[in-house]
Structures are given as structure tokens and as C-alpha cells.
């Protein structure tokens, strides 16, 4: 019997890629693909007996409940929730409009928490299931230039780890995946934000959606509590979180490194947009 997987954020980026991977395995997975932009997954995927597309504003409990009810009516159970939808507008705290506080907390923390609560209840009644939440390394260590997003993803990480311990007694696993910067349309849209995104570019090359695909498969195989990508940045993030003084000491060299890499990334992106060769 194929497993039933609900994916949020299926219109673009990580969610769309992962939906495409699972859609090619109809004998293994029955899919519920959701996004606030319902037209995105509808254009990318054809509805079928084992694949349905629904609009979902993850910030609204009623919309979550409707999607879960549709899932159960069609497939009878829910085995996996991939909480992928999220995003934000990087900026230094004093440059953020006050309404951005609600916007980022609602999208990156409240929305996934609603999904965990409602899908988790279904899985607990079934006696099994797996919730996979996409957080961020910005939620493992504080990230200057992205304080609101960092706060929301830290909350999601902590809630995921707490829920993982609570729900294991009922056969439900929770895994939080915390990646570094991922090359998606959102990343490219945020390139123009200047110094505020410098720390995001201070690591190696941005991750790809294929890197996240590998992490999802690992999560399904091993059911770990947490996966950080790449591993070395995960350890650096944990050390920075352990010692705020270390973060303070590292900020300037990481900022300078990030600005250099950001400028190189902008040149490559602009060259690609103009149809030129390698920068």
C-alpha cells in the first residue's frame, strides 16, 4: 500500500522539487501537494487517483483542517507531513517594518506548528507517522541580518525536538532539517538585500534542492531527530549558539567573506540572466 505524503510549499523551490521526485514513484507514494499559490503545483503536476493538489495558507488552522480532511477522505490515512513552506525578507532588525514580525513568525513558526499539531493528532490515532520540518541553520545559531527569520526557525527547531520526544511513544517520528542557504527563487530574489544577507553567503557554495532531496531520503530511512546541512556548518552553528562571545568574534570575518561571495554570486546570476558565459 503506498504511503500518503502531504507536502507544503509545492509551488516552487525545495517543495516543488521534492514533490516531483515523489510523483515519479506512484507505487510508493500517494501525494497531497499544497501551496498558497495553488496554480503553481496545478501547472506542474497532473491530478490523478494518487495525487491531489489543494490550496493551503499554512497560517490558517481551518485551511489545515480542510486539507487534512480531504486527505483522509481520499486516502484514509496520513503517513508523512513535509513542512517545507516558509520564507522571509532579510533585513537588519531596525530596518524591518513592525508588521514583518507577525508575517515571519506566522509563516515560519505558527504555520508549521499548526500542521504538526493537526497532522500529529491523525498520526497518533493511527499509531504511526513521520513529520519532517524544514527549519534552517539560522535557527541553530543567531543570524545577524536575519533576526526575525532566525527567531522563527529557532522556535520551529525547538518545537520539533520537543514534539519528537513526546510523540515517539505514540509511534510518530519528528525530524527537523536545518540547511544552510539553498539555491531557490527566494534566495535569488534576496540577493539585492546587501549587507543584511552577508552571513547567509559566508559558507561554501549554496546548497541545491538535490542536497535537500538527499536529506529527505535520509530522514525517511533513519528517522533522526535533526539533520544539519552541510555538517561542518551545523557544528559551527552549534558552537556559536553555545558561546555568544564566539559569534561576536566571528561576525566581522564572516561578514567580509559573505560580502565577497555575495558579489561573486550576483555577477554569476546577472551573467546567466543576460545569457553570457561563465563569469
Task: Provide structural commentary.
It is a single chain. With 279 residues, the protein is an alpha/beta fold. 51% of the residues lie in helices and 14% in strands. It has nine helices and seven strands; from the N terminus they run E-H-E-H-E-H-E-H-E-H-E-H-H-E-H-H. Helix 4 packs parallel to helix 5. It starts with a strand and ends in a 6-residue tail after the last helix. The relative contact order is 0.11.
| Strand/helix succession | EHEHEHEHEHEHHEHH
Q: Tally the helices: what do you get?
A: 9
Over all CA atoms, what is the radius of gyration?
Answer: 19 Å
Could you say which overall geometry the principal axes of the C-alpha atoms support? Answer: globular
> Would you tell me the structural class of the helices and strands?
alpha/beta
Structural topology:
Blueprint: E1 3-7, H1 13-23, E2 29-35, H2 39-44, E3 51-55, H3 61-75, E4 80-83, H4 99-126, E5 129-134, H5 147-168, E6 172-179, H6 185-189, H7 209-222, E7 226-229, H8 231-242, H9 244-273
Parallel strand pairs: 1-2, 1-4, 2-3, 4-5, 5-6, 6-7
Describe what is shown at a glance:
The protein has nine helices and seven strands, in the order βαβαβαβαβαβααβαα.
List descriptors.
single chain; 279 residues; alpha/beta; 7-stranded parallel β-sheet
Amino acid at each position: 500500500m503506498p504511503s500518503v505524503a502531504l507536502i507544503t510549499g509545492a509551488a516552487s523551490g525545495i517543495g516543488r522539487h521534492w514533490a516531483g521526485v515523489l510523483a515519479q514513484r506512484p507505487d510508493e507514494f500517494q501525494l497531497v501537494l499544497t501551496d498558497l499559490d495553488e496554480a503553481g503545483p496545478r501547472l506542474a503536476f497532473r491530478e490523478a487517483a494518487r495525487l491531489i493538489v489543494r490550496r493551503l495558507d499554512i497560517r490558517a488552522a481551518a485551511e489545515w483542517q480542510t486539507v487534512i480532511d480531504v486527505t483522509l477522505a481520499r486516502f484514509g490515512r496520513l503517513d508523512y507531513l513535509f513542512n517545507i513552506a516558509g520564507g522571509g525578507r532579510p533585513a537588519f532588525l531596525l530596518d524591518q517594518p513592525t508588521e514583518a514580525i507577525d508575517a515571519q513568525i506566522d509563516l515560519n513558526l505558527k504555520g508549521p506548528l499548526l500542521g504538526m499539531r493537526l497532522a500529529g493528532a491523525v498520526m497518533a490515532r493511527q499509531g504511526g507517522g513521520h513529520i519532517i520540518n524544514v527549519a534552517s541553520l539560522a535557527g541553530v545559531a543567531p543570524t545577524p541580518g536575519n533576526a526575525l527569520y532566525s527567531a522563527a526557525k529557532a522556535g520551529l527547531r525547538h518545537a520539533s525536538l520537543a514534539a519528537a520526544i513526546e510523540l515517539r511513544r505514540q509511534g510518530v517520528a519528528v525530524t527537523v532539517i536545518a540547511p544552510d542557504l539553498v539555491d531557490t527563487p527566494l534566495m535569488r530574489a534576496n540577493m539585492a538585500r546587501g549587507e543584511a544577507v552577508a552571513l547567509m553567503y559566508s559558507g561554501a557554495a549554496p546548497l541545491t534542492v538535490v542536497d535537500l532531496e538527499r536529506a529527505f531520503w535520509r530522514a525517511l530511512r533513519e528517522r533522526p531527530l535533526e539533520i544539519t546541512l552541510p555538517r561542518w556548518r551545523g557544528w559551527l552553528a552549534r558552537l556559536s549558539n553555545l558561546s555568544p562571545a564566539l559569534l561576536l568574534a566571528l561576525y566581522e570575518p564572516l561578514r567580509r567573506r559573505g560580502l565577497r561571495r555575495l558579489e561573486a554570486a550576483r555577477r554569476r546570476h546577472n551573467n546567466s540572466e543576460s545569457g553570457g558565459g561563465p563569469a
